[in-house]
Each structure stands twice: as C-alpha cells, then as structure tokens.
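Re: the request from the purification team.
They wanted to know what the chain is likely to look like in 3D before they choose a buffer screen. I agreed to run a prediction and write the result into the notebook, where they can find it.
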Amino acid sequence: MNDRPNIIFLINDDQRFDTVGAFNNPEVITPNLDRLVESGTVFSNVHVMGSHCDAVCMPSRAMIHSGRTLYHLSGNGEELPPDHTLLGEHLQQNGYTTFGCGKWHNDPASYGRSFGDGGPVFFGGMDDHWNMPVCNHHPDGKYPEPRLHNWDPGTGKSEMIPKRYDRIAHGVHATTLFADGVREYLLKRRRRREGGDGSAEMPFMAYCAFTAPHDPRTMPSEFRNRYPAGSITTPPNAMPEHPFDNGALDIRDEHLAALPRDPRVIDQHNREYFAMLTHMDAEVGRILDALEATGERDNTIIVWTADHGLSVGRHGLMGKQNLYEHSVHVPLVIAGPGIQENEVRNQYIYLLDIYPTLCEILDLPIPASVEGMSFLPSIRNSRTIHRDHLHLCYGTTMRGVKRSDLKLIEYVVGSQRHTQLFDLTNDPHELRSRHDDPQYAAPLSELRRLLVAWRDVYDDPDVDFWERLAE
C-alpha cells in the first residue's frame, strides 16, 4: 500500500454552498454527498475570489490548479503558463500518477502538464450534456485544433461554432460519462495491481470535473421526476428583477429567464437545478463505490467542491456574475486519512487555498509560484484563524470585502454608484443593506479601508473603478 495517500478531487460547475442535504437542506436529495460529509470535515466559509470575465469558472479553476490569486493569473486564466506550477504537475514531480477527466476550461497544454492519464476531457465552458464534444487522453499532450461543432452553448441553438474534440459522446449524459471515466481508471488500476504491475502501487490523484449542474439543465427523467412542482420552497431573496444595474445584467446567463422573473419559471429552473444535483450525487456514489472496491478507500483523501455558485432567481438574477453569497460562496468537503470525521470549520478560505493545503497534508513542498495559504492548521484546530477577511471581485463594476459576517459590496456602473453592507448573521439572504445605518458607520469605514487593500495587495489593474470610487 502507498506510503502517501491517494487523492480523488471532484468539482462541480455552478453549485451553491447550501445545496446538500447534510447542509441542513432537506429539499435536495444528495445521499452520497451526505455520507461524504459524515466521513470528513465540512468547510462552511469557502469562496471563489472572483472573476474579471463572464465565464467565472475559467479563472476559478485556474486559481484552484495554480494556487494563484485572481490578478496574478495570466490574463483571465484561460492559459496557465509553464512558470505556474500546477497541482497535478507538482504531484507528478513528487511520485504521483495523475488522471484527469471532465471539464477543463483552460488551455490543453496545461491539462497535458497536469495529467499523465485521463479522458474523456471537455475543453470548454458548457455544451449539450447529452452530446458532449470530448477528447480522448493524448499522452503527447497535443490535442485537435478547434473544428466546427453544431451546437452553440451561448444560445442553445444548432449553430456551427469551433470546438476541440475527437468525438461526440452521443446519448450518454456528461455526468455519467465523466464518472465512468474515473471508475474505469480506478478499477483498471486494481486489475493492474493484482497482476503485479508495480507502477499501480504508486499513489494517484484522480480529478473529475463535472459540467453539472450548469445549464442546459437536462438530466435523466428519473431525477427530474423526484422534484415535482411545489417540492422546493421559494427562496426569501427571490425577486422579479435586480434593484439596480450592477453592470452585468445584459449577459447570456441573465437571458435564461425573462424579466420580470415569473415565479413559475424560476421554480422550474430550481427544480431542474436540484434534479441535476441529485443525478450528479448518484454518479459520485458510483465513484465512491468503485473506490471501495479497489480496497484503497482508507488511504484516499477525497476533495469535493464547486467552482462558484449560482443565483437561479435570487436577487432577480440568474447567473453567477455578482458578489452575493449564492454566487461566491461554495461548498467544500475533505475526507480521508488524517481528516476528522463529521466536523465543521468556519474559517474564511479561498478555493486557491486547497492546493497548498493538500501539499501540507501530503508533506510536500509548496511551489514558489503558489500564493494560496494552507488551512491545515485550521483542520487540526477549529480555533485557528486562517484568513481575517476575504476580498471579492467581479468584472470592472463590483468589488467586495467580507469580514466577521459583515460584507461590503461597492458598485461603479457608468455614472452610477451603489453601496451595499450586509450583516450576514442577522440577514443571511442579503435583503437589507445597512450602509446608511449609523450603527454600522464604524464597521463600514473599516471595510472600506480593507477594500482598498485589494488594489494594493492583489494588483487590481482597474484604475478607473478605484478613481470613480474615490470621487
């Protein structure tokens, strides 16, 4: 058996922090994630730092794999340059075999550096779940040049657009397709080990990036049928439209439902969202069962998270291009050897902190290019503070800071300025801004001071935003 533990890293696309049954949400059916929660530690205050493009998943995943902060990525994170040592790359340099399948919304060269084995892989942001254009794993790291593919994820219509792919996975849902990839890898590894193949004794990382629950929200009918009309409570912060222009209202995600939002339409979107999560949960269960069958479960660390959340009608929004909790706050569970069972940690964490934390758990050096901070001390001691506050960003119009359950969001949109200050302890759904409440004047001033640190510490290049904010 391996001296170092294996790793299975599972990541979902668009999953909010509160959409697991074990997270006190009895309306969503997630029995396999529930048992993962019971076997590990839940991190209840994990956030994506933000994005400077509509495709929030692109920089988010770049930050996860590089451990870099948002504005220290290369561009918007589409390309991960060689001087940014990637998680899979670093593990390979330290005796691990690596396998990757599913969504890779970054450049093929960085995927090739990260994984010595893998597939099927989808190079893109979204597509038809039932006809996913995927590449097989290419050991030489060279993947097809983009060629025309007859489906436009921007409109959901059949239009010719360029995609990289070896084949179209017709008739199998992408969630099942990617889970099958991990299962086959795990079971093949067991067969090789039983056959005396010494290389199968090396520790491994298997990375699986689902495209669910991202739209188009399609899933096998058996899962849709588990959420009939009226089965989901309307969220308290559902609104017919956003109260002001946040600078990101005329984008693809916000056109998924007409304005003003029809409660019946939003209910359908949310039921389909939950149905996709329950389907994904079933496939996660199949992966966990395959891991059990290999006999390596007790020596495997399982990481499960998401790249960002999603509004689905909250605050009158549909997408993730905002700084409300439903969009920047994500789930994270870690289970396995050395990780306490059925525990919760409330420290502030960025997704980019997972990389250095895994390094410290595995007793590996943290590459110099990694900027994240290991939260292993917080795993070991619930009283240890990881980060005092978090900075948040979207595009050129929004900046935020969160500290001690207070959150400030500043908006600069054209000639308009808006400020929101939320007391998340008493207002978890962010319904009442306290920015003009005299009782909150002192914390508002302090949060504004911390917000300016974004510009200086993280090298925010948007000079115009800060000049406008100072007016």
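For the purification team: The CA atoms of residues 8 and 454 lie 33 Å apart.
Please add any questions underneath this entry.
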